[in-house]
């Protein structure tokens, strides 16, 4: 995560210097755009960590469900345990889907903002 942060910082710093030739207003705007990108990268790293944790939780819930599901027909108590395991698995799956969607939406917006930054604040040619 720190490596990504440092790469993004170096990348945005390198891209901001060509904006100096565009004028003071563009320079101010580009610096503001650059400053907004850095903390958003940290937020993306947090979303990736959350998504990864949800994936691990889903794997664990799936394994737990498999472990109790094989005994479903033994008794009513086993069937209830299997139902509870399935519910936990489905909740973990929904959480992973939610985290993945949030990450993808954030990445899509971040990429659009980087493209806008590149269009406005870098020299062509």
Descriptive overview:
The chain has 125 residues and is mainly alpha-helical. The protein has one domain. 86% of the residues lie in helices and 0% in strands. The chain is built from three helices and no strands. The longest helix has 46 residues. It starts with a helix and ends with a helix. The mean pLDDT is 83.
Q: Count the E strands.
A: 0
Q: Which class best fits the helix and strand makeup?
A: mainly alpha
Number of domains: 1
H/E series, N to C? HHH
Helix content estimate = over 70%
Could you give the distance between the termini?
Answer: 32 Å
What global shape is seen?
rod-shaped
Please tag this protein with its features.
about 120 residues; mainly alpha; about 85% helix; about 0% strand
Quick rundown:
The chain is mainly alpha-helical and 125 residues long. The chain contains three helices and no strands. Helix 1 runs antiparallel to helix 2 and helix 2 runs antiparallel to helix 3.
Write the layout of secondary structure elements.
Layout: H1 2-16, H2 24-69, H3 76-121
């Amino acid at each position: 995560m720190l490596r990504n942060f440092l790469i993004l910082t170096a990348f945005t710093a390198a891209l901001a210097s060509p904006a100096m030739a565009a004028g003071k207003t563009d320079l101010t705007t580009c610096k503001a755009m650059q400053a907004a990108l850095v903390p958003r990268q940290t937020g993306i790293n947090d979303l990736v960590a959350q998504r990864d944790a949800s994936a691990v939780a889903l794997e664990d819930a799936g394994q737990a469900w498999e472990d109790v599901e094989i005994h479903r027909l033994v008794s009513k108590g086993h069937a209830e345990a299997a139902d509870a395991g399935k519910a936990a698995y489905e909740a973990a799956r929904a959480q992973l889907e939610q985290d993945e969607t949030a990450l993808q939406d954030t990445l899509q917006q971040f990429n659009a903002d980087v493209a806008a930054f590149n269009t406005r604040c870098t020299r062509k040619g």
